[in-house]
Design a protein that fits this description.
This protein folds into two domains: 2-158 and 333-384, Aminopeptidase (3-Layer(aba) Sandwich), CATH 3.40.630; 166-310, Aminopeptidase (3-Layer(aba) Sandwich), CATH 3.40.630.30. Helix content is 43%, strand content 29%. Strand 10 (252-259) and strand 11 form a beta hairpin. The longest helix is centred in the C-terminal third of the chain and has 27 residues, at 343-369. It is an alpha+beta fold. It is globular, with a radius of gyration of 22 Å.
């Protein structure tokens, strides 16, 4: 099998036709693996981020592609939300949805073998697969092929949910129970009373609206526990570049819930391959009792039902009760690591796997005691309080 390696922007452009065709052929293409978005991420990242794409061909015909980038990767070893260690390694990150083409066992075994050669050639210290489906051949082989000390342990599998959207808002609301609809109306009225003004949802999709939306969303996100963890919506050059690019391609759709004249919740997403990918959400923590995130989310679903370009709503990573209530399809995903057979990467693996194992054990104990939600809520509240103090 011939392997073409692209590690520069010029080499990436040379394989653009094959890349675009392979993603179009995907039954459910993912925006993270879009070539223009990929290039924008690389160009707006730190100088140490480099493209690294492998194209596998048989008889000169593309068979499978691995879309990755070389970058510094910090292992956020944590228990709950508490960071215990933060070692850094040189990593080949395979982006979410970044394995295109045929994925039968034989081809996947070839891909895993070649990626392990990347580690042996010292081009990277770790291979990181960002969220593989646990029922895929790539997941199984990437967990089986590496030796014990080079294999990441205790991967956290979580459900990834999406909703197949009905043909109209009327059908959508007809699928909800009368009790739930009454509750949403009650929450909306309470929020209006507290704000001393009506609630309204404004949508954003034009390039000229990016600056305003980013300013609003980053301010709200900074108040949340995600903002305190450094994983919230941030006003960066990369954020603005990606939203402008999506807006220019008529893919960006964002929404802000206003209570009176004040923004209190936001959502931003991308339409791609007949799916709306929700990429960022947030609401003001002090308005939590009014469920502004839920109020906005229902309005977003309502609007998307009227959009002929959208068949599915993808909730993004992580499980949550509201996703389980409203989702119509789910699958398990987990991130996978393969470590180079050298002292430092193996040491990082041992530290990371030990802390992962302890974290899973504590989570299991909390689940048995029925205190998981309580512990999560208290931890998030503490983080939000710290964010509010800044």
């Amino acid at each position: 099998m011939e392997i073409i390696k692209a590690t520069s922007l010029e080499e990436i452009e040379a394989i653009r036709p094959a890349w675009e065709k392979m993603q179009i052929d995907e039954p459910h293409p993912i925006i993270n693996a879009n070539i223009d978005r990929y290039l924008s991420v690389v160009k707006t990242s730190d100088d140490d981020v480099q493209p690294y794409v492998l194209l596998f061909c048989q008889q000169s015909e593309p068979v499978v592609m691995v879309i990755g980038r070389l970058e510094e990767h910090k292992f956020t070893c944590k228990i709950g939300y508490k960071v215990v260690r933060n070692p850094s390694v040189r990593c080949l990150t395979v982006v979410y949805g970044g394995i295109l083409g045929q994925t039968n066992p034989k081809i996947c075994a070839t891909v895993v073998y070649e990626l392990m050669q990347v580690l042996r050639r010292d081009e990277a210290e770790v291979i990181f697969f960002n969220q593989l489906r646990t029922d895929s051949h790539m997941y199984r082989l990437s967990r089986e092929k590496p030796k014990f000390l080079c294999r990441g342990h205790f991967p956290k599998a979580e459900k990834h949910w999406r909703t197949e959207l009905p043909a109209s808002p009327e059908v959508l609301y007809g699928s909800f129970s009368r009790k739930r609809k009454k509750e949403w109306k009650r929450l909306s009225r309470r929020l209006e009373d507290a704000a001393a003004g009506p609630i309204d949802v404004k949508s954003y999709c034009d390039e000229s609206q990016v600056d305003l939306f980013v300013t609003i969303a980053s301010k709200i996100s900074a108040m949340t526990y995600k903002g305190a963890l450094g994983v919230g919506f941030e006003d960066t050059s990369q954020t603005r570049t990606l939203l402008i690019q999506a807006a220019q391609a008529d893919r960006w759709r964002a929404y802000v819930l206003y209570a009176g004249d004040e923004p209190c919740a936001f959502e931003s997403g991308i339409i791609y391959g007949r799916t709306y990918f929700a990429e960022a959400i947030g609401y003001e923590p002090h308005r939590r009792s009014f469920s502004p995130g839920t109020i906005l989310f229902v309005k977003v679903l309502e609007g998307l039902c009227s959009n002929p370009r959208v068949d599915f709503f993808d909730y993004g990573f992580g499980n949550a009760e509201y996703k389980e209530r409203l989702g119509t399809e789910s699958w398990l995903e987990a991130s996978v690591y393969i470590f180079a057979p050298r002292f430092y990467p193996v040491l990082v693996n041992l530290a990371d796997s030990s802390i992962r194992g302890l974290s899973l054990g504590l989570a299991f104990l909390a689940s048995k005691l029925g205190i998981t939600r309580k512990v999560k809520r208290r931890w998030r509240d503490r983080l939000q309080d710290k964010a509010g103090e800044k």
